[in-house]
Amino acid sequence: MELNDWSGKHPAEMHPADTIGKLLDYHFPPYITLAHMFNAPKGWEIRDREMTQFVLQYVVDGFCRYPVGDIPYETRKGDLLFHRPHERHSILTVKDQPYTCISIVFHFGSSAFPYDDLFQNNHLLGNFAGHPVESLLSQLVFHYRQPGLVHQVHCQSLLMRILAEAAQWGSAHSERTKTDAHNMPKLVLIKNYLSEHYDREILIGELEKVSGLTKNYILALFRKHVGMSPMQYLTWIRIGKAKELAIQSNLSIGEIALKVGYSDVHTFGRMYKKKTGQSLTQFCSNLIYY
């Protein structure tokens, strides 16, 4: 549903009960009143806002300060932030820093949502750059923009998966970090190497040399702490870089494919759609400029 369908009032500012009659395709919770991706212009900011609904805010690219109540947060690419109804917050962009964000606003009608059981008192749920949650968020925005009941059910399903994945990742990440603290620097070293050389083929032997770990140990470390293999992680890095180039440049799809390590644009296109559920062109069509 477009913003101009709300009789001039922003849906995120409406009381949850007032939105249900306008959401004709939603027959049960969760009710999603807004899902979009926007690229903030220079100097854009929001100060001391309170909403009556839940909000997920995901940084697709860039940086911003995002205080919630009296807690200051600095959010960067990949950060997923959650805040509850009536929590005062601001979104403050920084000079010469881009900010592209996915915003999901939702509520559960008269049903109570046990957010404390999922997230305790956390607002910053984790960094999901190169994680499938990033793709789920993009898919949700895409389906939200399509008319019809099927797409709305997809949105609801995707939202619940995102909440579950974020909650599971948060609790598991804390425990994993405690048990393998001595290996974390080497894991970071490998992840940085992949991020710096994503535009070419990388062999597992290179990662062995960089880290001093064996192939099997690297694979086990990645599966335990990242949830995927190093090469799968590399694919998600390439997807993220492709999105970044699509937002920030005028490059063609073919030129973007070359820059992220694919000599054949069709191979890149098939990979991107298989992993994200949409084409890069569809991703770009979701972007809103203010």
From TrEMBL:
PROSITE patterns per UniProt: HTH_ARAC_FAMILY_1, HTH_ARAC_FAMILY_2
The organism's place on the tree of life at top rank: Bacteria
UniProt keyword Cell inner membrane present: no
Domain HTH araC/xylS-type: from-to ranges: 188-286
Nucleotidyltransferase is among the record's keywords: no
Keywords: DNA-binding, Transcription, Transcription regulation
InterPro entries named among the record's database cross-references: AraC-bd, Homeodomain-like_sf, HTH-like, HTH_AraC, HTH_AraC-typ_CS
Protein name (record): AraC family transcriptional regulator
Organism, scientific name: Cohnella silvisoli
